[in-house]
Amino acid sequence: MEADPFIKIIVVGEQGVGKTCLLNQYCYERFEANSPPTIGCDFTTKVTQTNGQTVRLQLWDIAGQEKYNAVSKLYVRGALGCLIVCDIKDPNSLEETLKWKSIIEENSDQNNIPIMLVQNKCDLASDDEKTSYYQTLQGFAKTNKFFSCIQTSAKEGTGLKQLFTELIQEIIDKGLLVNQQKNFKQSNGGVQLNAAQSSQNQQQKKDKTCC
Ligand SMILES: Nc1nc2c(ncn2[C@@H]2O[C@H](COP(=O)(O)OP(=O)(O)OP(=O)(O)O)[C@@H](O)[C@H]2O)c(=O)[nH]1
Ligand SMILES: [Mg+2]
């Protein structure tokens, strides 16, 4: 019997927008009011089902602090999808999503990787504010070619299930999962590597060619 396929997803965005909290809420249903800044990159996994398809998510939580920006691009390889997160109360963090989008697109090994725009901390806005921010968000997402956008609250768990369902479905619809499985079978004689091993291998290959 074949193992359930895995999907590497990377989560990026400015410092403090709530990436780590969002993943902790989605994976462990917990929220930390004083979550410390991520150093470099964190990694977590979750098995989930979307429309009858079981997948193993590998979730890469990339630090937003500027000093890590140069290394962030190293984590992009092998990702089949990406979340770019901003803070509903910080308009600058929405503008900065474009910087992250460029980093992802320039370093992705996928043709047209699905990138979703996530406006987090929506519990901090009133209903009226949320509606108005959402209209702005939709316009921004359309203009800048994000495949979709959503408002979430890592604190309350709002929007998280829908967010991952949409992203996984887009990855499946684009055939990226099937391509990945084919590539692994061809290059590894049917043995599936996980993303960490895979990117390590890629790095080793790179190291070999440059020496
Ligand atoms: N009210 C509210 N606060 C949130 C939410 N998500 C995160 N926070 C707050 O924002 C702070 C920063 O969240 P993190 O998840 O650590 O931010 P990050 O994007 O991972 O930051 P870096 O790791 O530095 O890139 C947390 O300590 C929470 O207090 C949310 O949905 N609602
Ligand atoms: Mg973090």
UniProtKB/TrEMBL annotation:
Entry keywords, A to Z: GTP-binding, Nucleotide-binding
Transmembrane segments: none
SUPFAM superfamilies cross-referenced by the UniProt entry: P-loop containing nucleoside triphosphate hydrolases
One GO MF term attached to the UniProt entry: GTPase activity
Biological processes, Gene Ontology terms: vesicle-mediated transport
Organism superkingdom: Eukaryota
InterPro entries listed in its UniProt record: P-loop_NTPase, Rab, Small_GTP-bd, Small_GTPase
Nucleotidyltransferase is among the record's keywords: no
NCBIfam families: small_GTP
Protein name as catalogued: Chromosome undetermined scaffold_60, whole genome shotgun sequence
